[in-house]
Amino acid sequence: MAEVSLRGVKKQFGPVPVIHGVDCEIEDGEFIVIVGPSGCGKSTLLRMIAGLEEVSSGDIAIAGKVVNQVEPKDRNIAMVFQNYALYPHMSVYENMAYGLKIRGLSKEAIRERVDRAAGILQIEALLERRPRQLSGGQRQRVAMGRAIVRDPAVFLFDEPLSNLDAKLRVQMRVEIRKLHQTLRTTSIYVTHDQVEAMTLADRLIVMNAGKVEQIGTPITLYEDPATLFVAGFLGSPA
Ligand code: ADP
Ligand code: MG
């Protein structure tokens, strides 16, 4: 059974259609990258999966259950944004613990989850710091830590590295991939960066102007692009 299913998913803002009908089955443990130029509808699609935007028509299912009417907090997903949105007045520990506190977990359970995530991300030494005392890369790790402690079925990333400088971006890309090898959590990752997409993805969804151009592995898309757009965008020789 697919972990996330999109069936005929469309979105319009007022009279303007923005997503023209997306069908895709995302398997448990897959790392899927949604890639396409700015404005093609990547964030809108991701926000619909998160429940931050309603679908105009079609169905989104997570773990076999249609979630169109399910609140974001009850969807068993965690989202990592490009602006890390950490609480400036809270320590790293408190930032990571906050969502768990709201969910009513015990102090001990929270400590255990935060320590585990901090270990995975190697930020144990930063737990008492405030966000302003962290570098961009460290903040990004804390943002991922906040997602990991929730132990979601699906991670959603919206261009999480786009505020980092080029060198750090490459480094974090490797770390995100490693994190995925460790946790094996189904991940849906949005970027406009072709290289980032090709390095991270098990499969890519290439979007253009609200439509899916092609879905496939990096090799398939590179060697056998379905459209001129895919060939041009991914830079293959077709
Ligand atoms: P991407 O993330 O690929 O850059 P978006 O999903 O943000 O693209 O946007 C896709 C299209 O939808 C754009 O034309 C954008 O202007 C439009 N759009 C996004 N959000 C809204 C909104 N809340 N109201 C109206 N139009 C929107
Ligand atoms: Mg976007």
Question: In a nutshell, what does this entry contain?
Answer:
By secondary structure, this protein is an alpha/beta fold. The chain has eight helices and ten strands.
Describe this structure in words.
The protein is 36% helix and 26% strand. The chain has eight helices and ten strands. A six-stranded mixed beta sheet has the order 6-7-8-3-9-10, with helices on both faces. The chain has a four-stranded antiparallel beta sheet with strand order 2-1-4-5, with helices on one face. Magnesium ion (MG) is lined by residues 42-43. GO terms for molecular function: ABC-type transporter activity; ATP binding; ATP hydrolysis activity. This is sn-glycerol 3-phosphate transport system ATP-binding protein. Keywords: ATP-binding, Cell inner membrane, Cell membrane, Membrane, Nucleotide-binding, Sugar transport, Translocase, Transport.
